[in-house]
Amino acid sequence: MRSKDRNLMNRIKSYIDDYVLEHYGRTPTMREIGAEFSISHVSAYRYLVAMDELGMVVYKDGEIHTEILDKIDMDYRLVGAIDSSVPAGVPDMVDEAYVEEYFPLPSSFLRGMKGKFYSMPVRGESMISAGIDDGDIVIFSDKCEPAEGDIVVAFIDGEGNTLKRYCTDKKGSYLWAENESWSDKKRMFGRNFTVRGIALKIVKDL
User: Fold this and answer.
1) Beta bridge pairs of residue 106
2) Which residue in the list 84, 126, 141, 143 is annotated as catalytic?
3) pTM for this one?
4) From 154's CA, which of 29, 89, 109, 146 has a CA 20 to 30 Å away?
């Protein structure tokens, strides 16, 4: 490969890295590389062979490997985005939640857990002392067996969904608001509820 083609090799490598990130670990085909740079797929193949010889990529048995690709967590979980807010204040009447779309997250981001995962926007200020603010996005699993201290998405009978701390005492379990400016009476959200999921992550805007 002529030395003047080294610039194109660098561009092809950048294209492969960007493609891998945008397609969750999948590398482009020879035809896709060729179409991107207006060369034939045979020429794309020859470039990859030359790039392998120079150590820019690893191309073996028809597979492309780059440093970025080798660092990508290929184990993903699909998260269902629900078009309904989780009130983090006074529970609100809500329509039956439904998933608008699914998006992938690395398994490691979700603690390697298995099962179903969902995300919903948070509304209200009852969890601000736990660092959860109005407008945050909560990611939760559909696991419904919480431990003491877990933050849960719960359905309060006759009222709706809410995000609260799951607590227990001699009388059983109850929901507790994490807003230290509120009175204990206001922070107590009762014992008649159904846990719909356990919160795992909070996503914030900066």
Assistant:
1) 76
2) 126
3) 0.69
4) 109
